[in-house]
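During the reporting period the student researcher (J.K.) took over the structure-prediction task from the postdoctoral fellow and processed the backlog of single-chain submissions. One of the processed entries is reproduced below for the supervisory committee.
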Amino acid sequence: MRIAIYPGSFDPLTNGHVDIALRAKTLFDKIIILVADNGAKKGNYLFSTQERVDMAKKVFSKYEGFEVESFSGMVVKYAHDRDIKAIIRGLRAVTDYEMEYQLHEINHYLQPEVEMVYLMANKEEAFISSSAVKEIYSLHGDISPMVPEEVLDAMKKKLG
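J.K. obtained the following structure tokens:
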């Protein structure tokens, strides 16, 4: 079985994230959505780790071949320890590429058998980021085209 990990903070999960995951699923038998529980960023998260896991589970429960877990630590170590050979990453712009290139080199140094698989964001979602969604929502803008319905509901409950 071909398994890949799709890691991220997903705070919140956007339609861009979902698009990347669904497209990755055409390449792999199973995708593990790996929600980051990054202690260094805890103060910056809008949603708790459990809330982000719950949102992702609701969104991906509609599709076959997805699991959702949280993880604290190095994703490449998680992959190595479970004999998973691929980590999915989405690219939106050149600035993403620069950061991802450095991450790729570090991961390759640590675990050369784990491949990074990059999927370009669709142009319809390339401008969407979790931070932009949070800012637009906080300014009373309409984020409904940018996030799954389950996330919009969670945003309304969290922020009113």
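The committee noted the following: The chain has a mean pLDDT of 93.
J.K. will present the remaining backlog at the next meeting.
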